[in-house]
Amino acid sequence: MMTGDEETRAREEDALINAAFQELLDIYLASQHRKKVELITKAFNFARQAHKGVRRHSGEPYIMHPLEVARIVCKEIGLGSTSICAALLHDVVEDTDYTVEDIRNLFGEKIAEIVNGLTKIAGGVFGAHASAQAENFKKLLLTMSEDIRVILIKIADRLHNMRTLEFMQVNKQYKIAGETLYIYAPIAYRLGLSRIKTELENLSFKYEHPEEYARIEKKIEKTSQERDILYGEFTHPICEQLDSMGYKYHITGRVKSPYSIWNKMQKKHVAFEDIYDILAVRIIFEPREGKDENNECFNIYIALTKLYNAHPDRLRDWVNKPRTNGYKALHATFMSQRGEWIEVQIRSEKMNEVAERGIAAHWKYKSLGESSNDDQLDNWLHTIKEILDDPQPNALDFLDTIKLNLYATEIFVFTPKGEIKTMPQNCTALDLAYSIHTFLGNHCIGAKVNHKLVPINHQLQSGDQVEILTSNAPRVEEKWLSFVTTAKARSKIQAALRRQQRLLQNEGESKLSQFLEQEGLGNYMGNVEKIWKLHKLNDREELMLAIGKGSIVLGNDDKDALLGNKKFSFQSLFSFNRDKKKDESNSVTQHENIDRKKPINLTDENLKSSYIIADCCHPIPGDDILGYYDDEKHIVIHKRNCPVADTIKSSHGDRILAAKWEMHKQLYFVVPIMIKGIDDMGVLHEITSIIYQQLNANIQKMNIESNDGIFEGTFWINVHDVEDVSNICENLKKIKNIKTIARIG
Q: Which of 37, 127, 318, 685 could crosslink 132 through cysteines, CB 3.0-4.6 Å?
């Protein structure tokens, strides 16, 4: 029996659930999809019953989550009844006793296939172990290439989880936000879901760096009035011009997202006030009757050049050659009346829908018999399948290989016959060779770019004409991995290197067997292990490879080791004692029984004795940080935006710990600060005087270069925390000839 309060709450929750479902139906009925209300209602009732009595971390009934995912799938991505049903049912097989077979019997083969695909990657792309991560990611990519709706629903699922992330533990927030930024946002971008990609980035940023997020949002709000005035002044003449030309259109202002602003600040080492492209203007028009929408984009551009001066190097023609994700628009940058550059994006209504809804919009126009421009996406999915064909021994290498091209900006290059090839920015001649054919890449020895001979690592520019030069014999080298930028090139090089490695290992095996036979010794594991330990290698495979390469030549030392020579025993003892001393000298506490649900507090007393400060990012008090519980049970402290931490959040999320500083300006940390300015008499003296005398800080070392009247220097300064760094930078900015100052690293 329920109490009166419980009955009231149950009625309120039923009303809430029914209202959410009705909203979903209203959105669906307003779309252009076939009206399969009965099927959607059946899926909703089934999921509601299956999840009955279960609640989310927020305390709301669990069914609200599938309902929200279905709403995102329908309204924000634009999919139809099959996807809506799959979204409503996506957690049923994972979380209840129902099976995929039950779904198939009740809702048919297609919905069951999608639910099965979603169940395979349930709980996120990444599991607790490296092998599980790789397998889950492969499943995701395979289902993406078989039915793209699986990943679209998974992205909707992740978006709703990010929107409700406040109810999770802090360390879980870091894991989920890091995973989202590492893979889900890039995949959303690749599939053309620009609005969802932006929201995923912003939500990840909000939970990983809440103070920075709030600070940038406040500055965006503070400068909004000034931007509104600039927007009005800039667009008024454009409206008059488009009206006179007889266009139906609407113009919107697009403000750069907080994450995008912050990311640019980090990469360029500039302040918020130095970001000049926060405002962009978007013109969305209906093509005039009988006119081609591509040509109409250029007609509008020409009309705008009569009003404003266009930046000669900032015209981006995504109309005639769309991006890989299908995005079409004409981007141009114009000088406003106030002397500020403003980007203008010119799109037709159709182009705008494709930009907002990505691949779902492609399907819509394809079903209407119109061109969908999805060849590039098909090519990308084909590349994914090719990479999956090659086994990847290392899970993180596999993830990085796939991720390489998710965010890449495209350039266009030409073959000797004039064919256009779309490639990622910063790609090399070798990347192009592999994009054409694996054989061409494996045999590549150089290239001719615009009829000039260049090496294989030459970076290509948009508009280059490239001829690949080859040799008769393949010559794949490990150093190639250091400069290729595409997933396909990296995958094919790794596959070729593995083949070469297997051949060398076979050769090493043969040489070892021959050596042991000559010495009258058996080829058993104990003997082989003694040899690899003698040469300080990790395993049998490394030994065989080294012998095959010729870097190890078997001789008397190996014979002595196998026969138990005292010299070998002494060396082994010395090595053991040395390693033992090394272990004993490690003063970092091993945290055996730490409560991973609670944040760890870093104090002046425990920092050096109990934790390891990561060398990759050198966090200091005041930085947003997290802890990583490593294999040796040490806790390593990273900045939350450290690239290594990004990989950890994605690959070992279960080891992430929330961490916070509780320091009292007792310890010093060395921080590099980069300063650029005009090289004038006495500027260095002014810098050092302010640091030493006014701020009482110590410069540990400095490196300064001057060229053509401009100097650039890096100063390594002892500070207590981020507040000290900010104070130093603010005081140095007051020097007349200093133009840029920022902490680096």
A: 127
